[in-house]
């Protein structure tokens, strides 16, 4: 059960937007932050701020210990074998770019192929193109389910990697990543999982999944912006060249030659966002205290309730109706443009996202310009779904 007073931990929710109580349903874009995370950032800059790893003084040592403690916390959170398999980045986008750049330099040459799914975020498409790979997309059904038979047929001797999202940010589909990974490994191909939309909704155990890389962002799991994680299997990370050069990632530097630091520091060049990493640790604590299963159950209830409500309205078309879905509801109202719907909802205090959600190939697949997307988090309520329903009912005559 989620405690009734959960919303009191999220001060931002208690405000008006355009004269109406704010109903925040844009959680797939970013979640709001609980007081414990906000206070951690405040406390860090009040009493702990120092550059880490290189200092001998008190503040540098405490900041370093706190930072490294979160690495171990993340390791446990996603079930990694070693804490040095956890690399802190700025977010999912940087995590995927890191792998595309380093893995790409080592293993991808012109004509090589990367299998992605047809529902990837641009962050899991463009980095592979920049790395010089040819993309082979896995098609998906009208309901938003990947076609695994077609996937099997995509493997060729040129396939270097499979890169798929765990949960689609547009359709909500929870992809069968375990099966996708097993199938890739049967061909000797490693797999990167984009977990940006998964970590706050489904329990993740990277060893059980067997994935080679797993990427996610702090800000989509109640943590701060500007911090994310790239998990990579030790054997692979050890072989890969560094992503960026600079401080901390080196062992020795001369003008002729540089040797690199051990994992994970080889991939963490420059001063990291220490306060944000500590905030990420608090966000993990926040979710674990509530219980991931409780969060998932609460969101599943909201998704079912919202789906039933919306389908009672005339002219609603849902996109993404796979049985295994996270709390994302993409829809269109008749032939109305999603921006019009989003703007009218905003005037009534309802925050949803409109557009292609950085998944233009998904829009092309359905032949639509974009969708309206409502996405739920642990602090949302059935009353807020009612507010969305009432607002849609009210604006329908203006749209039809
Ligand atoms: N992948 C998916 C599935 C996403 O939903 C997002 C964020 N919308 C990203 C990648 C990129 O995440 P970030 O902007 O935090 O780097």
Tally of contiguous helical segments? 13
Number of domains: 2
Strand count, sense and barrel status of the largest sheet are:
7 strands, mixed
CATH fold name of the largest domain? Aspartate Aminotransferase, domain 2
**Gap from first CA to last CA:** 40 Å
Please name the CATH architecture of the largest domain.
3-Layer(aba) Sandwich
Shape: globular
Oligomer designation: single chain
Spans of 5+ residues with little confidence (pLDDT < 50)?
none
Order of helices and strands: EEEHHEHEHEHEHEHEEHEEHHEEHEEHEH
CATH class of the largest domain: Alpha Beta
Helix coverage percent of residues? 25-40%
Task: Give a verbal description of the structure.
Helix 11 crosses helix 13 (382-399). The protein folds into 2 domains: 6-33 and 291-395, Aspartate Aminotransferase, domain 1, CATH 3.90.1150; 38-288, Type I PLP-dependent aspartate aminotransferase-like (Major domain) (Aspartate Aminotransferase, domain 2, 3-Layer(aba) Sandwich). The protein contains 13 helices and 17 strands. It is globular and about 70 Å long. The chain is an alpha/beta fold and 400 residues long. It has a 7-stranded mixed beta sheet, sandwiched between helices. The chain has a 4-stranded antiparallel beta sheet with strand order 13-14-17-16, covered by helices on one side. Strands 1-2 form a two-stranded antiparallel sheet. The model has no long low-confidence stretch (mean pLDDT 97). Bound molecules: 4'-deoxy-4'-aminopyridoxal-5'-phosphate.
């Amino acid at each position: 059960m989620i405690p009734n007073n959960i919303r009191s931990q999220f001060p931002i929710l208690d405000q008006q937007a355009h004269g109406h109580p704010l109903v925040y349903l844009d959680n797939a874009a970013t979640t709001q932050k609980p007081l414990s995370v906000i206070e951690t950032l405040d406390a860090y800059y009040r009493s702990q701020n120092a550059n880490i790893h290189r200092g001998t003084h008190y503040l540098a040592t405490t900041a370093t210990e706190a930072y490294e403690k979160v690495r171990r916390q993340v390791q446990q959170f996603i079930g990694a074998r070693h804490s040095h398999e956890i690399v802190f980045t700025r977010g999912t986008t940087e995590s995927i770019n890191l792998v595309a750049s380093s893995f790409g330099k080592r293993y991808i040459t012109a004509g090589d192929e990367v299998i992605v799914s047809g529902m990837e975020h641009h962050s899991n498409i463009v980095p592979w193109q920049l790395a010089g790979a040819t993309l082979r997309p896995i098609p998906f059904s009208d309901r938003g389910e990947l076609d695994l038979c077609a996937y099997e047929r995509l493997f060729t001797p040129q396939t270097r990697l499979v890169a798929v999202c765990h949960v689609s940010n547009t359709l909500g589909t929870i992809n069968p990543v375990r099966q996708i990974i097993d199938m890739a490994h049967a061909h000797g191909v490693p797999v990167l999982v984009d977990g940006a939309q998964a970590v706050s909704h489904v329990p993740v155990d990277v060893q059980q999944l067997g994935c080679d890389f797993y990427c996610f962002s702090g800000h989509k799991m109640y943590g701060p912006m500007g911090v994310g994680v790239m998990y990579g299997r030790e054997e692979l990370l050890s072989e890969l060249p560094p992503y960026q050069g600079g401080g901390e990632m080196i062992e020795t530097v001369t003008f002729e030659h540089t040797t690199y630091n051990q994992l994970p520091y080889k991939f963490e060049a420059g001063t990291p966002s220490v306060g944000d990493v500590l905030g990420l640790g608090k966000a993990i604590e926040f979710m674990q205290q509530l219980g991931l299963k409780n969060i998932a159950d609460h969101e599943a209830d909201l998704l079912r309730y919202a789906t039933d409500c919306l389908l009672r309205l005339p002219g609603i078309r849902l996109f993404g109706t796979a049985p295994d879905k996270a709390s994302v509801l993409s829809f269109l109202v008749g032939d109305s443009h999603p921006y019009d719907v989003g703007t009218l909802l905003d005037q009534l205090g309802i925050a949803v996202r409109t557009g292609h959600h950085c998944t233009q190939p998904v829009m092309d697949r359905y032949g639509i310009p974009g969708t309206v997307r409502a996405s739920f988090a642990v602090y949302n309520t059935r009353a807020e779904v009612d507010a969305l329903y009432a607002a849609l009912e009210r604006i329908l005559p203006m749209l039809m």
